Amino acid sequence: MGADGPNSPVRKYARIESYGWAYDTRAIVATLFHAPRPEGLQKPNTTAYQRFLPTGPIAFLPLSPTASSLVWSTKPPLASALSTPPNNGGGATTSPSPGADPEILKLMINAAFRLPEISVRYLHDLILESHSSENKLRASQLAEEIKWRERSHGIDQNSAFSCFSSTEGIPPVDAEALPPLVTGIQAGTPASFPLRMSHADTYVGDDTRTVLIGDAAHTIHPLAGQGLNMGLADAEALADTIASAVAVGSDIGTPYSSH
């Protein structure tokens, strides 16, 4: 059974071809730290948040009371400026890249969920300009820019829509409208990888007693966790098929019993 990812060696062994195309998009991923939601004042950290930006959706996915996962789909130049670049093999690497400051990434994540779109666009341009310049933008400069933009948009500093509101005490009334403020990023986790659509010509090898599921069979944009859900559905369908084959005494490795 090939459940070994989009570059599946099992698929290659079974001589199954696949087709697809790139989305001209990269996903920035990282593990984020934040304060716990106050017990009795807010619901626990079990809600996923997503905002659709002009460059692509950004998703905040809960892991624990004080940690969440980031999946930010954006254009390749911005992904390169904000995260660790991929290695030569096309996968993600965790070695540092020039200009990839986790403090800047933290500020940009908070801003991406809170600032109006016009200011998010401006900050993207600012990051891209800095990335290609010898005079790199410092995190303190970016923080001051975000504060100025909050004032210009009339954002209350005590509101959940402020990137600098306090994480202590009684939360603002609109706190659950947004994910918790990111306070740090786990070292070694920021990375980016290209997003592609791909689909195997068949899920079953004709003469290799092989079946493909998950990303080995098909990849899709990670929007709304569609790839994970499809992979779980694959596993369920395969388990049902194997059970049915066993029930009638069929060889589970034959193409006929696997279809």
Helical stretch count? 7
According to DSSP, the number of beta strands is: 7
Show unreliable segments: 85-99
Binned, the helix content reads 25-40%
**Strand content range:** 15-25%
Using the alpha-carbon principal axes, give the shape: elongated
Largest sheet: 7 strands, antiparallel
SSE run: HEEEEHHHHEEEHH
Rg, Å, rounded: 22 Å
- The chain-level structural class is alpha+beta
In short:
31% of the residues lie in helices and 21% in strands.
Structure in words:
- Helix 3 packs parallel to helix 5 (139-152).
- Strands 1, 2, 3, 4, 5, 6 and 7 form a 7-stranded antiparallel sheet that branches.
- The protein has 259 residues and is of the alpha+beta class.
- Strand 3 and strand 4 (67-74) form a beta hairpin.
- Residues 85-99 have low confidence and may be disordered.
- The relative contact order is 0.20.
- The protein is built from 7 helices and 7 strands.
SSE order and pairing:
Blueprint (H helix, E strand, L loop, with lengths): L8 H5 L4 E17 L14 E5 L2 E9 L2 E8 L1 H7 L19 H13 L2 H15 L7 H14 L29 E4 L5 E10 L17 E2 L6 H22 L7 H4 L1
Antiparallel strand pairs: 1-4, 1-5, 1-6, 2-3, 3-4, 6-7
Helix pairs in contact: 2-4, 3-5
List its traits.
alpha+beta, elongated, 259 residues
